[in-house]
Amino acid sequence: MGFLDKLGFGKKAPVEAVIDPMAMMQEHVHPALLSVLGNVVDNEDSDTVTGLIRLDEAMRITGVDRLVRNDAPAAVEPSAIQEANEHLAPLAQLPEQQRFNGIDFSFNAGAVEMNLNYPD
After folding, report:
1. CA Rg, the chain, in Å?
2. Residue 53's domain is classified under what CATH number?
3. Whole-angstrom Cα distance, residue 74 to residue 65?
4. Is residue 35 within 8 Å of residue 84, measured between CB atoms?
């Protein structure tokens, strides 16, 4: 080992892998949202469901707020949240700049819209 090697020259600095946002949505976020919706939606052709999924720093669901189905308050079973967390588990590896803390969603007659909320 040469002198420069001892000082750390020639070594590459660790690089945080950036996850492709579209892949993240398709492989993790969308299936997690479907786990929650599958527990709330009765008729996918006519139901309207809105809500906010809150996430902690480890990208686990801590709650579902403002959950409304057809203008009435709704609730999600713990088993659906557990299933959704299994889909989200790989996101714990996200670099800090890609981490989000919520998913606003709207489901209307089979169409899903969602927005990721990022910390300030």
Report:
1. 19
2. 3.30.500
3. 10
4. yes
DSSP 21: H
* Domain count of the fold of the chain: 1
Task: Supply the DSSP string of the chain, one letter for each residue.
Answer: --HHHHTTTTPPPP-PPPPPHHHHIIIIIHHHHHHHHHHH-S-TTT-EEEEEEEE-TTS-EEEEEEEEETTEE----HHHHHHHHHHHGGGGGS-GGG--SEEEEEEETTEEEEEEE---
Largest CA distance in the chain: 71
Is residue 75 included in any domain, yes or no?
yes
N-terminal to C-terminal alpha carbon distance within the chain: 46
Q: Quote the domain boundaries for residue 45.
A: 19-117
Residue with tokens 């927005």: 115
Could you list the pLDDT tens digit for every one of the 120 residues in the chain?
555 555 555 555 455 566 787 888 999 999 999 999 999 999 989 999 999 999 999 999 999 999 999 999 999 999 999 999 999 999 998 888 889 999 999 999 889 999 999 998
